Amino acid sequence: MNTTATPARRNVQLPLQVRALSYQVQGRQLLSPLNLSIDSTGISIMLGPNGAGKSLLLRLLHGLLKPDSGSILWNQQSIGELSVRMQQSMVFQKPVLLRRSVAANIDYVLKLRNKASTQRRDELLHSAGLADKSAQPARSLSGGEQQRLAIARALATSPAVLFLDEPTASLDPEATSHIEHQVHQAARAGIKVIMVTHDLSQARRLAHDVIFMSYGTIAEHSSAGLFFSNPASVAGKTWLSSYLQPSQTNSPSHD
Amino acid sequence: MTDFSQAFGVAFQLLIRGDDALYEIIFLSLRVSLTATLIACVIGLPLGAALATLSFRGKWLLTVVTNTLMGMPPVVLGLILYMALSNAGPFGWLQLLYTPGAMILAQTLLIIPIVTALTRQIIDDNWLDYREQLHSLCVPRFAAIQTLLWDTRASLLTVAMAGFARAISEVGAVIVVGGNINHLTRVMTTAIALETSKGELALALALGMVLLLISLMINASVLSAKGHTSR
Ligand SMILES: Nc1ncnc2c1ncn2[C@@H]1O[C@H](COP(=O)(O)OP(=O)(O)OP(=O)(O)O)[C@@H](O)[C@H]1O
Ligand SMILES: [Mg+2]
User: Fold this and answer.
1) Considering every ligand atom, which ligand is closest to the CA of A60?
2) Is the minimum CB–CB distance between A98 and chain B shorter than 8 Å?
3) How many CB atoms lie within 10 A of CB B14?
4) CA distance B76 to B104
5) pTM of this prediction?
6) For B176-191, b where at least 16 C-beta lie within 10 A, e where not — what string?
């Protein structure tokens, strides 16, 4: 969608631009050539069925995988540059916490960026609601607490871009709303959030724009209002209607 | 059967009496094997971690060779070292043969493959998990290795114990390069071998019990220390 943004605004906002990106493994085309441009602020939500390529695309955008063709530019700079990747953080579908205390997980990242500070660490733990658990081994936290810690740790690098891969899958409604609150806060602080979810109501609550993926490509990229009221792609329409039919089992229970 | 009950009695007496000769042997055993374990860990832990996390030419071959060397017969290693350290050998000028230094060297070389191979496996398993996360955080490779070594410290402690167990229990290498010289290079295992050959079976068995008792105490203290390190 954002191809309509004025060039002047783009130079200030420095968006993401993806051109003709493709990725394959052992001759299997997992992502077919796709284009994408996103604003450098706000929350972009990535939707689509299992196996559509959402996690793959996040990894490519973050520079964890090398594309077979095409280019990924952040700020007009290639994702290959370390300085670009240093400004990004990612919370994985299955976060990997270090086998250390909760506090040490944050300290590790702060020290890595030469920003060691107990005050900053305590702030981050506080906003994650983990202040009273700072001495506990990180891997003994509950699933929801681990996700919150993973997000707090990702924010510890003070990123410009935050990737979240299904951060609320398998969490209860309260834990989910806590994480949504963290995401809102981050976005308000000017951090660009790109997040994958299967939770339609969550997508409605958070999305500024929706990237809808299907069969290894982007079926559509629309503003949230447009996507939820009148999706442009057939795939998007079908997917949405499957959620809206009450008989469907994959409809979120707390919707 | 009588040998066994006799051995218990002798072992008990030896320890209670505070036999100087016995304590000398125990202390030399511990000094040699603990030093060898320490050196082998300083070399083997980073080497194993590097084998797991770096990619370079010949990595596969190095891994196979390391794993194979775990099964090196101590007496063969002792023999090779003997030839290298004897006056006619390339390292004869070191004058190490028949000294505790030679025994430390022998045991170090014996257990480096064990420490390296086991470390490689442990780090490799964890690297699958950690790799993307550390890559995402832009952790430099060297710091990533340090991180993995620290996070797997509980398992690596067991690796060190396996190395120590192999060192303190082997006889083939230390007897060849140390020579089992009384008051100089006699350790528990070479003393046991000597008493056995003299037919002093009860005394030999008693020494064996003392050796196991020492291992038990070391393992117990390491295990209880491990309980205190959070996972
Ligand atoms: N390394 C790989 N080798 C082979 N196939 C892969 C590899 N990585 C991903 N795939 C395949 O690519 C497709 C997209 O995977 P991806 O993880 O991006 O899906 P997703 O959209 O995140 O799905 P989900 O909603 O289940 O998380 C899947 O069919 C997956 O099996
Ligand atoms: Mg996924």
Assistant:
1) 1
2) yes
3) 18
4) 16
5) 0.85
6) bbbbbeeeebbbbbbb
